[in-house]
Amino acid sequence: MEVSFGITGKDYVLLASDTSAARSIVKMKGDEDKQREVGKHLVIAYSGEPGDTVHFAEYIERNLRLYQIRAARAFDALELVEETNRMPIPARRNHVPLRPPAAAAWVRNQLATSLRSRKPYSVNLLLGGFDPTSSTPSLYWIDYLGTLGTVPYAAHGYGAYFALSTMDRWHDPEGDLEKGLELLRKCIAELETRFIVNLGGWSIRVADKDGIRRINLDGTPYEPPQPPPVPQAQAGAAEQAEATPAAVAPEVAATA
């Protein structure tokens, strides 16, 4: 019962995932974040088996970060050798961190490799990113079989049955972020009207030239919910308990 949406525009990528965590007919929580920021301009939305999704998302994040660290150290070492020997050395200067096409190809390779192992990952992904070198957004549809496709819009889960026709009708590749959010609202409204299950809230992230940020469905910045205020009576009792010195045990007092 999971849904993920991905929409590209002129200069952004928009990803949305439901926030419900359920097993069988039981809904266990309604604030699950099924997305992960794996780079400054890269974000993934995952769905599938709960253990596999979290483990594979962490695996992607740490390995992409490791590549960035190794590449940076290699650049420093080459510059040091060049300065010491006073002779030019051809440096393999790749983009650090990985650009969206390279990151998507690496993720697809990892899923294809795990598919041929004894314990394959059961994970479906939408990988969205913005390439600052070419100022172009990218969206990649990846499934648990290691299939990779570059798409202007995409959906995983039950949302694909209800929203792909809406995306096909209203998607504007040159539209701004407000048009992308309007399309997303149409897809969610279609899902709420025709899908038998209420999925609850949504986790929405945008990747553009400024990085990744989380927003609400109306485009306003997302603010995490604050804990409820402590009742005045309980707050007064807690302050009084902190101000009162602890009572001395009878045994300690008698000994003294």
Rough shape?
globular
Helix content: 25-40%
Number of helices: 6
N-to-C order of helices and strands: EEEEEEHHEEEEHHEEHH
Number of distinct beta strands:
12
The largest sheet has its strands arranged as: 10-1-2-11-12
Which percent range describes the beta-strand content? 25-35%
Largest sheet: 5 strands, antiparallel
Mean pLDDT: 85
What is the C-alpha radius of gyration, as a whole number of Å?
Answer: 25 Å
Counting helices, strands and paired strands, the structural category is alpha+beta
Uncertain runs: 89-95
Q: Tell me the span between the first and last alpha carbons.
A: 67 Å
Features:
five-stranded antiparallel beta sheet, 12 strands, globular
Give structural notes.
By secondary structure, the chain is of the alpha+beta class. The chain has helices at 50-85, 100-115, 159-170, 177-194, 232-243, 250-255; strands at residues 3-8, 13-18, 21-23, 26-29, 35-37, 42-48, 123-131, 136-142, 148-150, 153-157, 202-208, 211-215. The strands form 3 sheets. Strands 10-1-2-11-12 form a 5-stranded antiparallel β-sheet, with helices on one face. Strands 5-6-7-8-9 form a 5-stranded antiparallel β-sheet. Strand 5 and strand 6 (42-48) form a beta hairpin. Helix 3 packs antiparallel against helix 4 (177-194). The longest helix has 36 residues, at 50-85. It is globular and about 65 Å long. It starts with a strand and ends with a helix.
